[in-house]
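Project channel, design review

CF: Before we commit to the Nonomuraea mangrovi constructs, I'd like one complete example in the thread so the newer folks can see what an input/output pair looks like. Taking TIGR03086 family metal-binding protein.
RD: sounds good, go ahead.
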Amino acid sequence: MLINQDGIRELDRRAVMAGVAVVGKATGEDLGRPTPCAGWTLADLLAHMIAQHRGFAAAARGEGADLAAWRVPSPDEDVLQEYGRAALHVIDAFAQDGVLEREFALPEFGSHAVFPGARAIGFHFIDYLVHGWDVAVTLGIDYVVADDLVEAAWPIAQAVPDDERRLAPGSAFRPGVTAPEEATRFERILAMLGRTPDGRG
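CF: and here is what came back for TIGR03086 family metal-binding protein:
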């Protein structure tokens, strides 16, 4: 599936809003639940997701090199309430004129890592498509991904480096695993990014 540059913004918006809907089903009692992200509770995962939303929004404004923009929320922040605000913030940042032509500084890829806007938004898209699944599995609820989102995610997932960075503390993705023969396309994406259908990450 070929994605035009402007199309990635709409795909990302849909993936993010699907995640907002899933997070909206969580309660404070769920925050201590383990997630498919090894060693992370739901509170940890949401804190990471908030930080990434904020960081990518800063990158869209040309401010991504500032490490403070990627700060993970402190434990006293209400991650359930803040998550929706952070999600809308990054969607708004991506929607601004000129974003696709702007260079995004993404320090998690290296201290001087810079990517074209459309490609950077593609990274954000695959991250939140998978993290929406992580939250759904944590809560024990269904997570249905539209076919066009899956097809758009497929080449992006294939392009994510499967190297030592996936072993670093706080890495969103773990080393790839083998998908079962009967796996769906989305399950194969999850496997490429270190997830298994039973929710082990």
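RD: helpful, thanks. The domain at 5-144 is CATH 1.20.120.450 (Four Helix Bundle (Hemerythrin (Met), subunit A)).
CF: The radius of gyration is 16 Å.
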